[in-house]
Amino acid sequence: MNNTLGKALRFGILATLAGGTVLAQSPPPAPDPAKSQPQSEKPQASQDKPVQQQDTVNPKNSKEDVEAIGNRGVGKGINLYSLEREIALGKGLAQEVERSSKLIDDPVVTEYVNRVGQNLVRNSDARVPFTIKVIDSDEVNAFALPGGFFYVNSGLILRAQEESELAGVMAHEISHVTARHGTKNATKGELMQMATIPLMLLGPVGWAGYGLYEGLNIAIPLTYLKFSRDSEREADFLGLQYMYKAGYDPNAFVTFFERIQVDEKRRPGTIPKVFSTHPPTPDRIESAQKEIARILPNKPEYIVTTSEFDSVKARLRNIMFSRKVQDNAPGKPTLRTKTEQSQKGQTGNDPNSTDDDRPTLKRRPDSPLTN
Known about the structure:
- By secondary structure, the protein is mainly alpha-helical.
- The protein has one domain.
- It has 13 helices and three strands.
- α6 (181-202) packs antiparallel against α8 and α9 packs across α11 (282-295).
- It is globular, with a radius of gyration of 26 Å.
């Protein structure tokens, strides 16, 4: 049973975090007309007016104290996974990710992204080492697996306008690992399954009922492994602290949210995959702004962007362009799907079809059958 549980949990976490399986969720509530503002009355984006921060703050507890980062109880709670087991789980999931993904292997790009990420990790509550890699994908996405295996899509790097925006999204994903959201949710799934097994064994179907349940148990982990809104809020809360502690302007996280929101309004359905399950709603943006003002004391200066970010971004753009040119080169063999092949077979029986790729058979003029 443990082996089956482990497999189901691994596939559940991988599908949820990597975005390969989109889980159904209730649609967001309709906006309240009384609270909505005309476009002309809406406040300016935070990149024009940063959140006003206090010179001194009074944190209520260690979780609000940025000076206590690394020495507080982030990630505590009911969890059946030890850190060692969590790392082993993440390692297995990482192998599956890398078998199905194409990685960017350019040393300049990978070293830069790893350095940005490791700087954030050093200024976080992480209790596991992080391995950071770049996936060759246009999707604006990033995800961190349990145990610190972190993947950043090239599309996210190209979408960010400043290094601090990239750092903000990375800090958010790192927070899911420091808070141990993945294995905490997996624990909920395991506990529910364990509680259900005795009832099924005592029922009329006995062990046969357990066998059927075991065959379907992947549904339980999938249900409990998507990050809840509370987990997303906690990741926002911690991520702002980590990027601030690492020297970045926390307003950049809000700026990136606002730009994604504006793009979604202009072209519905274009929201990046990294925000697909929990989009940057006005409430989420407002909450982040309040936390910046309440718990992050003002600094005389922040890292906003660097010339290295611009050069790495330009280098990555050239790499992506070159690969697309190679993929579309004339004479390069192409693969057809089964659907395309079946469609070919259907058109081949049509006498009006003009499929030049399909071979045709003709009877020789000297054949005795022609007489």
